[in-house]
């Protein structure tokens, strides 16, 4: 199946740079090269009665580094997450999700938790995850907004080993300035 590609939407730009991500957070690979596949994850926190949100952390990681990072997850965690993910997809109506490109509205698509259909504007926090190739977003695997309820449920499925590996990744590659360290406390990186 050919990749379905669209221009990278601003929702997946680097907030720090105001443009699409250019390098892998782990290896520094140039992500703009055609055919370079990568993932972008952004953790968002809502404020002022959920009228606006800020990015708590963001990163782009090439698929080679992403796959290597997943190898650091325990077998128990991988098995638990795969079972959880499969159940959520089955609850949504099966393994095949399609996007009608003629009617696709990214803002509307990302306005609800992908798995629970609850509005993200009503949550304290949520995450955005998308897949990309060079200077395009790949829609074959739809972008997702993942709400706090799902993030918590997924976090509970992780082994102590996996939580430690994710904390190590966060500290090494996403370590915040001291003034916002408190915002990161307890935040988990999700690897879908």
Brief synopsis:
The protein has 192 residues and is of the alpha+beta class.
Could you please describe the fold and organization of this structure?
Strands 1, 2, 3, 4, 5 and 6 form a six-stranded antiparallel sheet that branches. Helix content is 31%, strand content 21%. The chain has six helices and six strands. With 192 residues, it is an alpha+beta fold. It has helices at 63-71, 75-92, 106-109, 148-156, 160-174, 181-184; strands at residues 5-7, 37-47, 52-62, 125-133, 136-138, 144-147.
Using only CA atoms, what is the Rg? Answer: 16 Å
Query: What is the average per-residue confidence, as pLDDT, rounded to a whole number?
Result: 85
Overall domain count: 1
State the shape: globular
Order of helices and strands: EEEHHHEEEHHH
Distance separating the two termini: 21 Å
Question: Which structural class matches the secondary elements?
Answer: alpha+beta
Task: List unreliable stretches of 5+ residues.
Answer: none
Number of helices: 6
Q: Which percent bin holds the helix content?
A: 25-40%
Largest sheet: 6 strands, antiparallel
Taken as a percent bin, the fraction of beta residues is 15-25%
Total beta-strand segments: 6
